[in-house]
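step: validate -> pass
step: tokenize input -> pass
step: predict -> running
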Amino acid sequence: MIYRLLVPTTFDDTDAVRVLEWHFRPNDRVSTGSLFVELETHKALIEVRAGRDGVVRRLLVGEGEWCPLGGALALLSDEAEEPIDETASEWVADFAIG
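step: predict -> pass
step: emit ->
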């Protein structure tokens, strides 16, 4: 199954986050709990950790770029061979403000 990593819409006083650093690249396997990406708002740093195992398929926002709340950051899948489906489900992740 294909999944979208979405920015939560619950951050206060901001309408977007900026990608600081991706810790995985397309075709990399991600394990539950792994630090996946670091983001920032105008006030906070945010660490995003994988909530499940998966394979990175596409990074949709580059380092240094901004993504609106609710926007998709990446596409992931259970297996590397699965065809990409743009109507993917939401991928489970832990967005922790640091």
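step: describe -> Residues 2 and 77 are 4 Å apart (CA to CA).
step: cleanup -> pass
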